[in-house]
Structures are given as structure tokens and as C-alpha cells.
Amino acid sequence: MNPNLINLLTRTDQIMAGANGWHPNPELVLPNGVYRGTIHVGVDLGTAYTVLVVLDENFQPIAGEYQFAEVVRDGLVVDFIGAVDLLREMKSKVEKKLGFKLTSAATAYPPGVPQAERRATANVLHGASLDCTGFIDEPTAANNVLKIRDGAIVDVGGGTTGIAIFKDGEVVYTADEATGGTHFSLVIAGSMGLTFEEAEALKKNPNEQTRLFPVIRPVMEKVASIINRHIEGHQVDKLYLVGGTCAYPSMDEVIQEMTGVETFLPGNPLFVTPLGIAMNN
After folding, report:
1. 35, HSE (Cβ side, Cα atoms, 13 Å)
2. Residue 3: what pLDDT?
3. Domain 3-141+271-278 has what CATH class?
4. Which class is 143-265 in CATH?
5. The pLDDT of residue 112
6. Residue 148 to residue 170: CA distance in whole angstroms
7. 244 or 225: which leads in pLDDT
8. Average pLDDT of the residues of the chain
9. Same CATH fold, 143-265 and 3-141+271-278?
10. Which has the minimum average pLDDT: 56-65, 73-82, 138-147, 182-191?
11. C-alpha neighbours within 13 Å on the C-beta side of residue 171
């Protein structure tokens, strides 16, 4: 894997865990709290996690927040007020870290989402006092980071699996279908007699993941079947997995086994798409 990519994702993990070390030039912070320097802000409104990340002028992460929230379902905003309130809270925390206000951001949408729903995502940003200055589909955003020329990016989030096929660096096909980490939790809840919240917590517990693997493997296989259906007829010899769901142990191995296509898992997959969104701002 590209060493620069490894460093970028490692630094992002550190930033999201609370690391600091970047400080703005005070001469570039106006009295009203607006920063005159160059930054890039991305907001990823996911089915499971909402992520806000800020990059400097060199596209290196300097601050960020992420939080579990059920304000989006299958790429659609289902709790507009909740999404706005959550983003306002996260924005406020990041602003305190940085020492200046955030005024604009880019965001993204799953492939195939209707135009009206795309506008709803942008309106969440406006509701949180952020101008929406960039709009991109999620797999293409991920490729701002991965920079692949040929192959497919598979973005498995909480609710959907998005696919973008690239040839010579250009997108030639995109698709999105329901199935993601939420379905892992639903299967766990059903098989073990738990509430959804209990199943979600169990799924994220590293000490339980090996025991739960046989329960959720069929959902992983369904993701693989979605991939197989959409790459059929295309020359795809590499898959790149992004999205928080892909962090589940052995997910990449199941995908490779079921598709027969060489599969890569770059760093922490949860943050690849948000980074790429910010790079579009």
C-alpha cells in the first residue's frame, strides 16, 4: 500500500482519538472568529456514524469528530432535526479544538440516491450554519484518497453497499443497494434475542467479534453477492473496501473468497470516505 496513504490514515486515526499539534496562525483568525487560511472540511452523514473532518491546506487532517447516530437510513435523511442538532454539536467541538469558526463544508451521497434526497443532505449542512460547497457520491469521494485507476471501490456503510467501478481513473459505473452494518446488528439481535441497541454494542466489542462471525457471515456473503452482480460484465481485478462495516474482522477475506477478486482493506475504512469528501471542499 502507498506509504503516503498509510501515513494519512494513521494520522486521521490519531486526530479522531483526540491528538492535537496543529495551531492556526493567529494573524489569520479575524475578530469575528473566521479563519482566512485555507482549510478543507468534509461531513459524512452515514447510517451509523456521522463524521466531520478538517484538513489543512496540504490536505492533512488537523481536527475531527465522529459519533454514532441513527439520523440517516439507507442514504436518506430520516431525522432532519436530529441530524442538524448532531452536526451543530460536532461542529462546535471541532471549532473549540481549532480556535476558529467553520463556515463551509463538502458532503456526499450514496450512488443512485434521488436528487431530492441529495438536497436534504445539503440542507442538513445549511441547518448547522455550514455552506455546502462540494457535493460528490461516496465511492468517488473515497477515490480522492485511494487514487486507484482501475478496479472497484466498495463502500459498505451502516445501511447500504455502494460500488464505483473505475477504468483509467474515470468512473464508468456506480450502484448502491441496501445491506450494511445495520443488517449485522439485526441478525445478531434476532439470533440472540437482543434489542437492536444491545446487538449493536455486542457487534462493536472486539472480544465478541470472533464468536459472532458465524452469525453475520451470511450478511457478508450477501454484500459479496451484491458486488458480484454489479461487477458482472466489467473487467474488475481489484476491490478496495471502505466504510465502517468493513472494519469487522475477516470481512475482506469473505469478500475475496466469494467474489474471487483480490480485495484490499486500506487502514481504518471508516475514515476514507470522509477524508475524500473534505478533499472535495
Report:
1. 20
2. 65
3. alpha beta
4. alpha beta
5. 73
6. 9
7. 225
8. 91
9. yes
10. 73-82
11. 18
Phi, psi (degrees; rounded to nearest 5) at 48: -105, -45
CB-neighbour burial class of residue 57 (10 A; exposed 0-12, middle 13-18, buried 19+): exposed
pTM: 0.88
Q: What is the pLDDT of residue 1?
A: 55
Q: Convert the pLDDT of each residue in 52-65 to its tens digit.
A: 999 999 999 999 99
Helix axes 115-127, 80-98, angle to 10 degrees: 50
Cell of 21: 499539534
| Cell numbers at 236, concatenated | 474488475
Instruction: Parse the chain into domains and list their residue ranges.
Output: 3-141+271-278, 143-265
Residue 4: the pLDDT is 83
Quickly tell me which residue has 453477492 as its cell.
225
- Please provide the size of the chain in residues: 281
| 41 within 8 A of 133, measured Cβ to Cβ | no
Q: The sheet that has 170-178: what strands, in order across it?
A: 170-178, 160-167, 151-156, 238-242, 262-264
Amino acid (one-letter) located at 162: G
Higher pLDDT, 132 or 139: 132
Please give the span between the terminal C-alpha atoms of the chain, in angstroms, as a whole number.
25
Name the grid cell of 259. Answer: 467474489
- Burial of 203 from C-beta contacts in 10 A (0-12 / 13-18 / 19+): buried
